[in-house]
Write the structure tokens for this entry.
Amino acid sequence: MKKVLLTTTALVMTAGVAAAEVSLSGTAGVSATSVSGANASLTSGVDLNMAVSATAGNGMTMSATVDLGEGQLIDYNDDFAIDNQCATAETGAATSMDAAGAQVAATNNNDTCGFVGSSGAPAITLGYNGITVVVDAGGIDDLYDDAQHDDVSVAMNVGGLDTTITMDTDATDSHGSYKVAYTMGDLTATLTGSTDPGADTAADAIAAGGGETAVAARAANDYSGSKIALSYAMGDLTLSGSTDDGGDLPATHTAGFSYGMGDLAFDYTIKNASEEGWKDYDAKVTYSAGALTASYATDEVGVSKIIAEYDMGGGATLFASSKTTKGTNNFQTVGMNFKF
């Protein structure tokens, strides 16, 4: 990703005063996308990120990114959604698919939107002596269940353990999470946990009625959860496994492998969830040669995902992807992104 340096040596002051830098990067794209079998529609958009950073005389660093955008970009390889880049009341939230595979509609009014920041309070990152602190009110994913969000993240290495903790500062719904990882040769062990994953209990409480909001439902149904995951690399083969106590839900266990063979890579994971036996699985095959990368993935409920990307060089990428559920067209798109 190319960066455009906006600052000059005038911003680099005398010793003891912070040296500042400002840079721009982003993505522009155009695509044709069909959702839930509807006729394809053209979309275009730009996501512009302005990064600012400074280093104090004592070695402390501070950085922040302002996210600006307009129009719509396509999330073609993860959520399979149309993402609005302009975060105003007129445009609403980014679109996504519901559990049945239907696209959640969002209002769009780019004529009145213009370039605006995506957040009224952008994240601030502070670094000092190997410790990194991120402050982003409501914008930090819970490390155990990223459906919940925290306000502060602290990352450090303690005795060879890569450790991260997150904290929420809301007194009415206090929660937090942690992640500890240790690598010894080809073996990596990771422990994650949360004082309140919340997503499932919130949905259950709302579905049961009573008009509870997600926050109120989580506050009334707090529970803790933890997960330990192991991976072991043996050349082209990596074995993995995990166990998740699920908080107040039944435990989940997984086992899987990743294997690379020339231009091909295979990934397979099987899961024992909700005490129903080892019947849930995710399988994926990826082909990568030169500028072309293509993959096909499927699971036990018949969700199939096809993704193809062609690197044109200079930051330009052609892409096409499709998500279907048991033969039903949910999401198809083709387009081009340009990163700068």
The longest strand covers residues 19-35. Residues 1-17, 88-119, 205-215 have pLDDT under 50 and may be disordered. The chain is about 5% helix and 55% strand.
